[in-house]
Amino acid sequence: MKKMMTGAMSAPMAFGLKSGHGVGPSRLALAVLCVWPLAGMAQQSAPAVDAAELKSVVVTATRSQVHANDVAGSVSAVTQKQIEQRGSRNLADTLADEPDVSLPSDPRRFGSSHVNIRGIEENRVLMLTDGVRVADFRSPGTTNYDASNRDIPFVEFLKQVEVLRGPASSLYGSDAIGGVLGFLTLDPADLLKGRSFATGGQLGYHSVDNSKRAMAYVATGGDKFQTLLMLGHAKGEESDNQGSNDVQGLKRSTPNPLKYEQSNVLGKLVFTPNTAHRFKLTLEHKEGETEVDALRVGNTSPGSPNTLTRITTNTGIDALTRDRIVLDHDYTPDANWFDRLGTKLYTQKQSTDNQNFQLRTNTSATCSASTIGTANCSVDQRFKYEQRHSGLNLLQEKAFTLGLPQQAIWGADFLRSETEESKTTTWTNLATGVSSNVFIGETFPKADYPRGHTDQLGLFVQDELSLGAFKLTPGLRYDRFKLTPEDDPLYKRTDGRAAVSKQGHHLSPKLAALYGMSADWNLYAQYLEGFRGPNYEEVNRYFYNNSQRYALTGNPDLKPETSRSFEIGSKYAGKGWGSQFALYENRYQNFIDSVILPAGDPNVVVSGGVSFSTYQYQNLSRVVIRGGDWRGYWQATPALRLSAGFAITHGYDQSSGKPLNSIEPKRMNLAAHWTPSEQWGGEWRLRAAAGKDHIDDSSTSYFRTPGYGVNDLAAWWQVQPKLRINLALNNVFDKTYYLWSDVRRSGMSGSDPAPEFYSQPGRNIALSMKFDY
């Protein structure tokens, strides 16, 4: 079902659209040379380690290490071992068995873009890599020509992925209103395991996109220094589906031809001069490039024809680069007014470069995408987006007794986010050779919002009080933010208004209670409040299309989104079986949404005396989301472990009474994990979902996804102590099924002429070999 890139793919090169962000050997070699000298600094004597097996801990839930069963809230983790055994190649594969988590994806071009937790998504879910915020998601809107996805390291670099559900603003501030997704990368000690030197790697193949993946590492360790260098490379094509109609246009059901290549470098240096101090320097570089031939461009409304009939060639190059530098310091004095002081200083920059090339035939003199004429033209577009985060996190911990045993944490977060974007478009009449930078009534280059920065300050405190088997945890965080635009000649408005600054502040309280019924069984309840301040784009974005007479304008009067959450639950983690159950209700106010303004509104964009159909970000919705989820396991025999999970969520907009389309249908998973010996084992997994029926069709009459059940098999063999083979057979029975998150993300209608274009992959395999020395 794979299709090689068509001849049109060479068109961007012919018209000078080479990105300059390729993953060539020079950039990768430079990154390696910058990090590799760290390895030579290590001493050769390895420190002793405790041979006892440590209990699994999570960090994201409380910003300090704690057993997941002792957290008053719903938190789960996917370990490095599970990632390997399931043959994961990306975050969507890694979280496929979390029934209340989804990753909306658009198969036309940009793939998975952000995370949805219990119906809340995009920049309302905070994503952290080793405690550093991931860059914002920037939606491509309806054009599907430009986007900036939230990027993380290769999954082979991760030791654990943690999912914290519900508002977490009392610890993390803005953007954690819907939950937190934490990614913890491997440290030298995770690979050394008490040795002074370790090296190894992993080779993988995935038939779903014909991809090859490679990872290699070297780690050294001594009494004071430990180092780690990891290199990763991936190369593949478009993800398969169940379509078979290989044509151009809206009747195409096979995937758009696509090629991608990515490289990732991670270096760490850990310096422990004594028992009180520990320093860690982390350097990461990632780059990637994707080439796509969009033989199927867009969707149509029910009963409407394709409006992009003049586009006969539509190709693109999407490049991404990301650099991260983090310095961590842990100070644990023998005796002081605090037990631990953690300091994190970091900077991260992510850049996205989207390039598009189109040939438009038999079009109008102005190169319309839909109007028939006699002209032929080419269109070159380039969209750039860059965001830099620079910050400082301070965290202190102290255990003390003041009438009652207490465990307190307090600290501060400082963050500056700098954002810049630009658009360039040139079109050429192929008959006359005349070029112009005036396109659909706009003059390029331009920017939808000016470059600028956002400063955020957060101060937080949390205290856990123990009253025998009962623990009470109050918490409070104060946040202040300020958005400041900078002078940008590319920011042009028809009304002559300038970009505005905006500032605000908010208090986010928390109260959690946990009661230990036994050493393994806890009951909990919690009340949480969350908030998210409007981002720079929502306040200052200004876009207009003179040809089709529509516009989008920001809103300087936006209020922060707020939430109130109630949750009760039970957790049991014994040797033979375990269970985690939660019921919750989340109420969100002042949701920021884009709505069309009524005629006569002073914010309606006017050009040449003509009023445009104008959209604006406004605080409109009061949203309620209720649901429950359960996870459990049973160690039926020493070799057989059974597990299951189930999630059901309901949500609606109180203002309109309409259901929320971001809510997933009921989902569940079952698994049987069989390990008869330490040398080999296997796993069967079932992922299932009900059909989606409660849908708001006011803007799009969506395709109703039917229910499905998909079976996966996995097996692993420890060939020898230093070599391990993992094999996964996914969608064993070649089931044709659809994910509601993808249908909604792509805007697929119920009358789509080729729905299989949005179907999930059929039967496929994932094979990897991992070696450690």
From TrEMBL:
<keyword id="KW-0812">Transmembrane</keyword>
<dbReference type="InterPro" id="IPR010949">
    <property type="entry name" value="TonB_Hb/transfer/lactofer_rcpt"/>
</dbReference>
<feature type="domain" description="TonB-dependent receptor plug">
    <location>
        <begin position="69"/>
        <end position="180"/>
    </location>
</feature>
<keyword id="KW-1134">Transmembrane beta strand</keyword>
<dbReference type="InterPro" id="IPR000531">
    <property type="entry name" value="Beta-barrel_TonB"/>
</dbReference>
<feature type="region of interest" description="Disordered">
    <location>
        <begin position="236"/>
        <end position="258"/>
    </location>
</feature>
<keyword id="KW-0798">TonB box</keyword>
<dbReference type="InterPro" id="IPR037066">
    <property type="entry name" value="Plug_dom_sf"/>
</dbReference>
<protein>
    <submittedName>
        <fullName>TonB-dependent hemoglobin/transferrin/lactoferrin family receptor</fullName>
    </submittedName>
</protein>
<dbReference type="InterPro" id="IPR011276">
    <property type="entry name" value="TonB_haem/Hb_rcpt"/>
</dbReference>
<keyword id="KW-0675">Receptor</keyword>
<keyword id="KW-0813">Transport</keyword>
<comment type="similarity">
    <text>Belongs to the TonB-dependent receptor family.</text>
</comment>
<dbReference type="InterPro" id="IPR012910">
    <property type="entry name" value="Plug_dom"/>
</dbReference>
<dbReference type="InterPro" id="IPR039426">
    <property type="entry name" value="TonB-dep_rcpt-like"/>
</dbReference>
<dbReference type="Pfam" id="PF00593">
    <property type="entry name" value="TonB_dep_Rec_b-barrel"/>
</dbReference>
<feature type="compositionally biased region" description="Polar residues">
    <location>
        <begin position="241"/>
        <end position="258"/>
    </location>
</feature>
<keyword id="KW-0732">Signal</keyword>
<dbReference type="InterPro" id="IPR036942">
    <property type="entry name" value="Beta-barrel_TonB_sf"/>
</dbReference>
<keyword id="KW-0998">Cell outer membrane</keyword>
<keyword id="KW-0472">Membrane</keyword>
<dbReference type="Pfam" id="PF07715">
    <property type="entry name" value="Plug"/>
</dbReference>
<feature type="domain" description="TonB-dependent receptor-like beta-barrel">
    <location>
        <begin position="302"/>
        <end position="732"/>
    </location>
</feature>
